[in-house]
Specification:
heterodimer; A: 243 residues; alpha/beta; B: 225 residues; 8 helices
């Protein structure tokens, strides 16, 4: 394992029945990186996120996060990760505060410290005035902001986002951009899957393109713009598909 | 590092009860189904008083079981719909605590329906079911059904045909439990003493323990993929 790698993946294979989704993947992510994980549908992006979150077991290979190994030390790994998915992972018939209280307790937070932290998170995501409203009355953008509050509640080192921009309008996407920049500025390591190439060219520090379960491209995002990334993406995905 | 087991269970139970008190979605649909069922059975058996008295424990348990499958399906579907189960699985908790949290919630909802049924059936069938032993049997039987049902609902909720699949999978597995529950209730209501060879309430307890241990061991594998 590299000395500075927060996430270390070696020879990762994931197959469903006999169908391989990830094929001997090697990847390291350093602390503080903001990585965009791109790729066509079925390329293995969400599978990789689920494996890193301990929601699925690898068929073969090694995953270490913060020095802990998956799936052996799954609880220790999970404590370091916050997950934002395209689904909100929130309960409709509870208010925002009740949802955050519930998930906070699952992360062993309690008492006045938890209450204060919930208030601070709601202010951060711009939902302080709607904290007592039931989540089922929230718009898609508000749900996604509350999802980020839920994911950051336990102050994780790593934020994993699985297509977080799905279904968001322009304003909500801009708000989400701001929240992600802030989370990154706070020193968090971020791994985000997305189909949004213009955003992937601007927000992250590194871009990885997965295609058919292998890494086809892995480079710094500096100097990239939406047009050049789209060109690289098209080349990589067509090249891997032709193999 | 892990959140304490009991604290996790209590948090899940509290969350389920709070949500249900607000929406009354589960107990409402289970209760309505149960009341309609016993009414239908009551009308169907109306002309034959003897048959009605003999069938009363069967009617009680069939109604409780079917009502519980409605509740179990909905209870687990709520965890799947917005990815909430993943939200819980992501937390640094013992994953079997999720099972026990959901089990307690499902047990409470089914018992509430069962306790509503007892006085209504007493009035409709002219036979008192408000007996401490019947109530204890209701608790033991419901625990077994809720245990197996919570485990199986976690599996079937991931399939497209979950509404129909749960009873198809659950009924054969819980058949011994249903048999023991019906026999024990019939013996209690008819005042027939135990014949000494088989103690149905003891079988209910043994089945509860077997179902609880098996579900405890299997739950983590069931939720992982």
């Amino acid at each position: 394992m590299s000395e500075h790698a927060l996430v270390d993946i070696q020879g990762l294979v994931k197959a469903y029945d006999l169908l391989p989704i990830l094929r001997k993947l090697d990847l390291t992510i350093a602390r503080g990186e903001f990585v965009a994980l791109l790729g066509p549908n079925g390329s293995g992006k969400s599978t990789l996120i689920r494996l890193l979150c301990g929601l699925s077991r690898p068929t073969a290979g090694l995953i270490r996060i913060g020095g802990w190994e998956l799936p052996k030390e799954s609880a220790a790994v999970r404590a370091q990760i916050g997950l934002v998915s395209h689904k909100p992972l929130l309960y409709d018939n509870l208010s925002a505060i009740e949802n955050l209280q519930f998930f906070g307790r699952l992360y062993n937070l309690s008492g006045s410290g938890l209450q204060a932290h919930i208030q601070a998170m709601l202010v951060k995501v711009g939902l302080a005035k709607r904290g007592h409203d039931l989540v089922r009355t929230y718009s898609r953008g508000m749900l996604q902001r509350l999802s980020i509050a839920r994911a950051l509640l336990h102050n994780p080192d790593i934020l994993m986002l699985d297509e977080p921009y799905t279904g968001l309008d322009q304003d909500a996407s801009t708000v989400l951009d701001g929240l992600l920049k802030e989370a990154h500025a706070d020193g968090r390591t971020i791994l985000m899957t997305t189909h949004d190439l213009p955003r992937a060219a601007v927000l992250p520090t590194r871009v990885i393109i997965l295609s058919r379960g292998v890494i086809g491209y892995d480079a710094s995002a500096s100097g990239l713009d939406a047009l050049s990334l789209a060109q690289i993406y098209a080349n990589v995905t067509s090249m891997v598909s032709a193999r | 590092m892990k959140t304490p087991f009991l604290r996790t269970v209590l948090s899940i139970v509290q969350k389920d009860l709070r949500g249900e008190l607000r929406s009354r979605e589960l107990v409402g649909s289970m209760g309505l189904f149960a009341l309609l069922s016993i009414l239908v059975f009551s009308f169907a058996l109306e002309l034959d008083r003897v048959a009605r008295e003999e069938a009363i424990s069967g009617v009680l348990w069939v109604t409780v079981i079917y009502a519980s499958t409605i509740g179990l399906n909905r209870s687990m579907a709520m965890e799947r719909e917005h990815g909430n189960l993943d939200g819980m699985l992501m937390a640094p908790i013992d994953r079997t605590a999720i099972f026990f949290g959901k089990l307690v919630g499902n047990l409470v909802f089914t018992l509430v329906v069962g306790f509503i049924l007892l006085p209504v059936m007493t009035a409709l069938y002219n036979k008192s079911l408000l007996d401490p032993i019947v109530i204890s049997l209701l608790g033991l039987g419901t625990l077994g059904f809720a245990t197996v049902g919570t485990l199986l609902a976690t599996m079937t909720v991931q399939t497209r045909a979950r509404e129909s699949l749960l009873p198809i999978v659950m009924l054969p597995i819980t058949l011994p439990m249903m048999l023991a529950a019906v026999r024990a209730t019939t013996a209690t209501l008819s005042g027939t003493p135990d014949d000494g060879s088989i103690s149905w309430p003891a079988i209910l307890v043994v089945l509860d323990v077997i179902y609880l241990v098996a579900s405890f061991l299997l739950f983590e594998y069931v939720v992982e993929e």
